[in-house]
Amino acid sequence: MTLLTSWPESGPGSVIRRTADPGEIAAVLAPLGVRYEQWPVRADVPDDAGSETVFAAYGPEVDRLTAEEGFTTVDVLGLHPGDDPEYPVRAKAAREKFLQEHTHDDDDEVRFFVSGSGVFYLHVNGEVHAVLCEKGDLLGVPRGTRHWFDMGTRPSFTAIRFFHEEDGWVATFTGSAVASRFPDHDTLAAARERDRGAA
To answer: Which residue from 100, 101, 75, 79 is spatially nearest to 90, judged by alpha carbons?
Structure first.
């Protein structure tokens, strides 16, 4: 499900690694303090399911992680194309909010993908790691880690969000233009689909 691509922070001219193997992805991310897990996919949960359905389906996993990590707030965020005439404006604003490199000083950023996809870019130790997360993937980015997130030009995802702080998502932007140098969500997702077609 997941695809990890790593480059030097200077740019994507050379690829350090590219893998879809969950064990290898976990092994690369663990030394960075990044939590990566795959949870069982509940096939009976619609892609655009609401909070009540999502929590009913993933309650045991949510309870386990909340107990392990001491999260105080857990919610469900979804954004999907549909009949809503406001979708294009909402989607553009949501995407732009997360596209620049930032950190979180007081909390980790932990997300589980119930449906759809998104890419977390981790800027650590002179490298940029793009983690394309899809249905069933959980990623936890430690506080203080430079990163950004891309949901694509036509976002379609539902995710469970976990917070230690009641303030929710609070970012400190670094002012760096590094994010503009690397392939976006749509480019990476298209490459992943080509891989699947060739398999």
So the answer is: 79
| Cβ atoms of 160 and 50 closer than 8 Å | no
Instruction: Give the three-class secondary structure for 129.
Output: strand
CB 159 within 8 A of CB 112: yes
What's the predicted TM-score (pTM) here? Answer: 0.94
- β-pair type (157-163, 109-124): antiparallel
**pLDDT tens-digit map of 97-126:** 999 999 998 889 999 999 999 999 999 999
Q: How far apart are CA 94 and CA 88, in angstroms?
A: 10
Q: Do 49 and 105 contact (CB within 8 A), yes or no?
A: no
Contact 130, 178 (CB under 8 A): no
For residues 77 and 54, give the distance between their C-alpha atoms in angstroms, rounded to a whole number.
10
